[in-house]
Amino acid sequence: MKKFLVAGIAAAAFCGAPAFAADMPVKALAYKTVDPGYNWTGFYIGIEGGWARFDSRVDAISGGAFLTTGPLHKSGGIIGGTVGYNWQNGPWVAGVEGDLSWTDLRVTNNTAPNCAPGNPGTHCTNKLDWLGTARVRGGYTVMNNTMIYATGGAAFGRVGSNLNFGGVAPPVGAIKTETGWTVGGGVESMINPHWTVKAEYLYVDLGKVPTFLNGVALFNPDVKARVNVLRAGLNYKF
């Protein structure tokens, strides 16, 4: 009888221990790797702001001669809003994002005698009033709550050019909304399931902005506009 009792206890221990042992690690592993609170899929809105550098120059043809102001640079603040949507598949995240930012980047070249032909006192002023982008994003989550991403798409900007002839003739100028392209990248982290913070860099090329100025014979300047943007953002995900 004792032999049967001992054998029964041993058999129960042998069968029960593996089940208990298998159950505990699975629960612990699931607790460590699955966090349903961090999900990037969804619609979001936010604010962004930072620093921008506006690089421009005026190229013109007058009487067959090619004239240029040389590079004009201006740095300053930029601030605006963002809207977008993300889709997550495993560690990969894809999305679309648009933003519109205000800036007041204005640069004047007072030492460009070729800003207009035959008028050494002429100076040129170029400016960027606002900047917007419409982009796609592709990212990879290096942790549950942090994503690194690349982005690119279309860009839009309000670019102006003004020529002051130093009293020889009335100032002339033009301002236009121009389209171009942008590319960049950044990193974004979730503070909690609804709030995220990000830092990103964008390079924007608005191409050649034609500013045909009436009343200036044979003088058709083009403004080349480039913008480098470094900014941070705070988003709310619904």
Q: How is the topology of this model organized?
A:
Elements: H1 2-33, E1 42-62, E2 65-68, E3 72-89, E4 92-109, E5 123-143, E6 146-164, E7 172-190, E8 195-210, E9 222-237
Antiparallel strand pairs: 1-2, 1-3, 1-9, 3-4, 4-5, 5-6, 6-7, 7-8, 8-9
Explain what you see.
It is a single chain. This protein is mainly beta and 238 residues long. It folds into two domains: 1-34; 40-237, Porin. Helix content is 13%, strand content 64%. It has one helix at 2-33, and strands at 42-62, 65-68, 72-89, 92-109, 123-143, 146-164, 172-190, 195-210, 222-237. Strands 1-3-4-5-6-7-8-9 form an eight-stranded antiparallel beta barrel. It is elongated.
* N- to C-terminal distance: 68 Å
Mean pLDDT: 76
- What is the number of independent domains? 2
User: Which strand order does the major sheet show?
Assistant: 1-3-4-5-6-7-8-9
